[in-house]
Every structure is written in C-alpha cells, then in structure tokens.
C-alpha cells in the first residue's frame, strides 16, 4: 500500500433509526445512521415489520387512492358520454325525418292532333 493516500479507518458508532439499537463498527466516518439493522430487519427476526421512512408508505397509499379516484371519475364520465350517445341514437330512430311531399307536375292539356282522313 502507498503511504498517505488512504483514508484513516476508525471506530464508528452506528445507530439504527428503526429500533434505536447502537453498535460499533469500523469506517472512515465518526457516526452512521441506518434505517434498518440486524435487530429489526425482517430477514433476521422472522417478523414482518413495516418501516416507514419519511412517510413513504403514506405517500404511496395517497397516490394509489388518488389514482383509483381518477379512474372512477373517468369511468363515470365515459358512462355518461355513452348514455348520451345511446339516447341520441334512440331519439333519432324513433323520430324519423318527415317526408317531403313530391311536387306534382302541372298537367298540360292534351293537344288535339288533327286527324287525317284516308
């Protein structure tokens, strides 16, 4: 190893934000904060625990609820539009356009053709 280019390794205090557990390790910084440690991680404990960091779960649930509400409102709008179109079609089928009477041709008096005697 080259001398003078590597950072100094020192004992570090690690604090878990999930359960409050503290332990020592080695690192180049003095203190480390972690969200989940081996005392509270579901893999090590065998228990499912929901760790909510900075309200991420709540934000996710709010987004999914907003998406569902938007989908329902779009569904309602589509249903209304479909109902309007069906009503319009039904109305056009029931009320047929009135037929215009045909204009009668003016009858010309038959011209008498001169009869020729033979």
Q: How would you describe the overall organization of this protein?
A:
With 118 residues, the chain is α+β, with helices and mostly antiparallel strands. The chain has 2 domains: 45 residues, Rhinovirus 14, subunit 4 (Irregular); 41 residues. The chain contains 2 helices and 3 strands. The protein has a 3-stranded mixed sheet, with no helix packed on it. Strand 1 and strand 2 form a beta hairpin. The longest helix is centred in the middle third of the chain and has 39 residues. The mean pLDDT is 78.
Characterize the biggest β-sheet. 3 strands, mixed
The first-level CATH class name of the largest domain: Few Secondary Structures
Please give the alpha-carbon distance between the first and last residues: 144 Å
Order of helices and strands: EEEHH
Number of domain modules? 2
Global morphology: rod-shaped
Strand adjacency order, main sheet:
2-1-3
* Overall pLDDT level: 78
**Total helical elements:** 2
Give unreliable regions as ranges: none
Q: Considering DSSP H and I runs of 4 or more, what fraction of the residues is helical? A: 25-40%
Structural class designation: alpha+beta
CATH topology of the largest domain: Rhinovirus 14, subunit 4
Task: Count every beta strand, where a strand is a DSSP E run of 2 or more residues.
Answer: 3
How do the strands and helices of this protein lay out in sequence?
Blueprint: E1 10-16, E2 22-27, E3 31-34, H1 42-45, H2 56-94
Parallel strand pairs: 1-3
Antiparallel strand pairs: 1-2
